[in-house]
Structure formats: C-alpha cells, structure tokens
Amino acid sequence: MTEKDKSTVLLEYSLKKLKLPTMLREYAALAAVCRKDRSDFPIYLLRLAERELLDREKHAAERRIKDANFPVIKTIDTYEFSAQPSINEALVRQLLRGEYLDYRENVLLIGNPGTGKTHLACALAFSACAQGRRVRFHTATDLVTQLLECREEKRLQRLHKQLQRLHLLLIDELGYVPFSKAGAELLFEVISRAYEHHSLMVTTNLAFEEWTEIFGSERLTGALLDRLTHRCHILQANGESYRLRQAKKRSKGRPPKNQLSNQQQL
Ligand code: ADP
Ligand code: MG
Q1: Residue 255 alpha carbon to ligand 2 centre in Å
Q2: What is the domain range of residue 22?
Q3: Of the ligands numbered here, which is closest to the C-alpha atom of 85?
Q4: What distance in Å separates the CA atoms of residue 176 and residue 214, rounded to the nearest whole number?
Q5: Number of domains in the chain
Q6: Do residue 207 and residue 153 come from a single domain?
Q7: pLDDT band at residue 260, thresholds of 50, 70 and 90?
Q8: Which ligand has the minimum distance to the alpha carbon of residue 82?
Q9: What is the pLDDT of residues 87-102, one digit of tens each?
Q10: Is 44's C-beta closer than 6 angstroms to any atom of ligand 1?
Q11: Nearest CA to 56 among 23, 34, 28?
Q12: DSSP string of 18-30?
C-alpha cells in the first residue's frame, strides 16, 4: 500500500467515524474541481463543509415534515389566491415567514367546507417545518381520540410532554363532530397548555357563536376562546368551495346533457 492509499483509507475511516457522509462521498470529486479552479485549501474545506451542512439541514427538514404527519403535502405554490379573494394574502405571506411562532401566536382559519382552509394551514405548517420548527398535524377528532386513549392507559402526561416540545400544533376540522364532556375537557387542556408553550393553528367551519354546540359547556367554550383568540391571527374564507367552482367550470365547457351519447351520460 502506498502512502497515498494509506492516507485515503485513514481519511475515509475518519469521515465515517465523524459521521460526515456528504464529505466522504464528495471529497475526491470536489478536490479535482478545486485543483482545476486553483482554489486554496481553506476554500476547498469550506465548500466541502458547506455541502455537508446543506445535506444535514435538508435531511432534518425532511424528518420534521415526516414527523408532522401531514395527511397530504400542500404548499403555497399550488394555492390560488384569485380563487378565494376573501383570504388576506398579505397576512398569509407574513405568516409564511414564521415570526408568529416566536411569539406563540395562534392562527385561526374559519370558513365553509372546501374553501382551502386545510390546504392553507398545511402550507403554513410546511413552511414552518422548512424553517426548522417542530410541527404536528391532527384532526380534532383524532387528537381527542388519542387523548382519551392516553388517559385510559395513563399515558396522558407523556402525550402532553410530547405536544409541549412542538413549536406548532395544527388542529384541523374543529366543529365537524361534537365531543363528549371528557373529550372537550381534554382538548381544553391541550389548548390551555399550548397558550404557555407553543402556537396553535386551528381550522374550523364554525362561527364563534356556534362553538358551544361542540364543546357542550358555555363556560368551557368561553375560557377556550379566550385563550385561543388572545394573540391570534384570523384568516376567513367567505367564498365558494374550490372543488364546486372547478366542477362548475368543467361542466360549463361540456355540451348540454341531451347532446351526450347514452354511454357518456352513464
Ligand atoms: P377545507 O379544508 O376548507 O374544507 P381544503 O383545503 O380541503 O378545504 O380544499 C379542498 C380541495 O381544494 C383541496 O384539494 C385543496 O388543495 C383545493 N383548494 C381549495 N382552495 C384552493 C385554492 N384557493 N387554490 C388551490 N387549491 C385549492
Ligand atoms: Mg379541511
């Protein structure tokens, strides 16, 4: 083994031990490039370290997105603001920057079904993940089910601790299904704790006056709304359902029904 072979083996061993996989994969090719560019040693080392750092950040963001448990990945690039003019675009753009998370501010998205609330909430939460924040997506129903199960199995404190480590908890579809008394109280506790520790993002089809119907008690609903809406950004969608609009557009382009063949009508 030549001196050069020996140093290569030792270098690769050290990079592996130090857990620097990108450097290990790219050091030789980048050395050739730097030799050609006549870049000096510190520049070579800098470029190599930058690649390792970039890959590391990319993997960490991918892990955060996986941990967030999004039902589907939605980003802001596919959201058409022109289809929902009631949405405050300037506020959405501001929230995408993520400063509200530093101040533990909440975001409430209110509107009829199909108006893009879940899409927008996921897009905002996705952007938070990309900025290094820990996020978790739950529908209100699955969160309450999980809370009730954890209480049953005496794992409630553990779940609260997990939730407290988040920067953002997204609760989707609040208001579709009413809760039992125990479920409403457990959800209230999550919202109370969030007030001290992290931001909440809630999507709902309910106007504030209707919240008592799903939480049961007027007193509990009052206390909950008080915590949720203090330090809160509200996005309201008053328009028509996006899917309905698309369906109407498609049917406008079609010939009237009596001009379709029998097979097409089926
Ligand atoms: P909501 O949560 O308000 O019921 P969703 O976010 O689930 O509505 O939207 C229903 C579907 O329509 C989703 O596939 C979503 O991506 C799409 N959608 C809704 N609004 C828009 C919009 N303004 N631009 C692009 N897609 C939209
Ligand atoms: Mg939704």
Answers
A1: 32
A2: 3-68
A3: 1
A4: 8
A5: 2
A6: yes
A7: very low
A8: 1
A9: 999 999 999 999 999 9
A10: no
A11: 23
A12: TT-HHHHHHHHHH
Q: Report the chain's mean pLDDT, rounded to a whole number.
A: 91
pLDDT of 200 > 90? The answer is: yes
Please name the residue whose Cα sits nearest to atom 19 of ligand 1. Answer: 116
Distance between Cα 77 and ligand 2 center (Å): 18
> Which residue matches tokens 């601790």?
161
Token pair for 180: 């039992």
What is the number of other CB atoms lying within 10 angstroms of the CB of residue 137?
A: 22
The answer, yes or no, to whether any atom of ligand 1 lies below 6 A from the CB of 205, is no
Whether 209 lines ligand 1, by a CB cut-off of 6 Å, is: no
Phi, then psi, of 237 in degrees rounded to 5: -110, 115
Pocket test for ligand 1, best of 242, 243, 244, 250 (most atoms within 8 A of CB): 242
Q: Which residue has the tokens 């083994």?
A: 1
Residue 249 lies in a domain: no
177 to 137, 142, 180, 183, 223: CA distances (angstroms): 17, 11, 10, 11, 20
Q: Are residues 57 and 86 in the same domain?
A: no
Q: Which residues of 197-221 are buried (b: 16+ CB within 10 A; e: fewer)?
A: ebbbbbbbbeeeeebbebbbeeebb
CA quadruple 72, 76, 77, 82: dihedral sign: positive
More confident: 107 or 178: 107
| Four-CA torsion 150, 152, 155, 157, nearest 10 degrees | 90
Cβ-proximal residues to 81 (8 Å cutoff; 6+ apart), any chain = 87, 89, 92
Residue 86 shares a structural domain with residue 165:
yes
Query: Do 193 and 129 belong together in one domain?
Result: yes
- Please indicate, yes or no, whether residues 39 and 139 belong to a single structural domain of this protein: no
